[in-house]
Amino acid sequence: MTARALDGYEISTDPDRLDSGLVHDWLANDSYWALGRTRAHHDRAVAGSLNFGLYEAASGRQVAYARVVTDHATFAWLCDVYVSPDDRGKGLGTALVEEVAEHLASHGLARLTLATKDAHGVYEKVGFRPLVAPEQWMTLGLLDPGPVGP
After folding, report:
1. How far is Cα 110 from Cα 42, in angstroms, rounded to an integer?
2. Whose CA is closest to 113, among 64, 52, 68, 150?
3. Cβ atoms 62, 55 nearer than 8 A
4. How far apart, in whole angstroms, are the C-alpha atoms of residue 39 and residue 16?
5. 43 in the Ramachandran plot: left (φ > 0), alpha (ψ -120 to 50) or beta?
6. Secondary element (H or E) of residue 148
7. DSSP states of 77-95 as a string?
8. H-type helices in the chain, by residue range?
9. Please, which of 18, 44, 64, 93 could form a disulfide with 54 given CB 3.0 to 4.6 Å?
10. pLDDT tens string 33-43
11. How many distinct helices (H) and strands (E) make up the chain?
């Protein structure tokens, strides 16, 4: 699947197009949520996920990435959304998330969830909203219990 995202860019789920080394570098060295992630850990995550790359159409250079953990039937979790620092501010993150949501809509999923510390505005443009009943959700932090409290 390859679709036009914005003029001069395209989005693809073709795993052979992913620059996994570049994506690992972005996430392990420049994201707040995956700092220090090992290459082996990254490769396992990519192998078990639906991956979206956003590329310059002319050069093929990868400029953004998003990963979805899903059963393709009932649930999906959007994670590891990243846009190269040199390519931010062009609407590419929003275009990428829109394509992810459109791609998954055809599967009849009950929900697509995500967690973000600082990009709420990007996701709100696509239709994401806070959980209606967060008290119904629970988490089990096996390695990192995450923040506790309000």
Report:
1. 27
2. 68
3. yes
4. 17
5. alpha
6. none
7. EEEEEEE-GGGTTSSHHHH
8. 20-30, 39-47, 92-105, 120-126
9. 64
10. 999 999 999 99
11. 4, 6
Integer CA distances (angstroms), 42 to 47, 58, 100, 104, 138, in order? 9, 28, 20, 23, 25
What is the band of 30 on the pLDDT scale with cuts at 50, 70, 90? Answer: very high
Q: Which has the closest alpha carbon to 45: 19, 80, 21?
A: 80
Tell me the C-alpha distance between 52 and 2, whole Å: 10
Written as six digits, the tokens of 117 are 């510390």
SS3 assignment, position 14:
coil
- Output the pTM of the full model: 0.89
**Residue 11 tokens, joined:** 């989005």
Q: How far apart are CA 29 and CA 27, in angstroms?
A: 6
For residue 83, list its beta bridge partners.
64
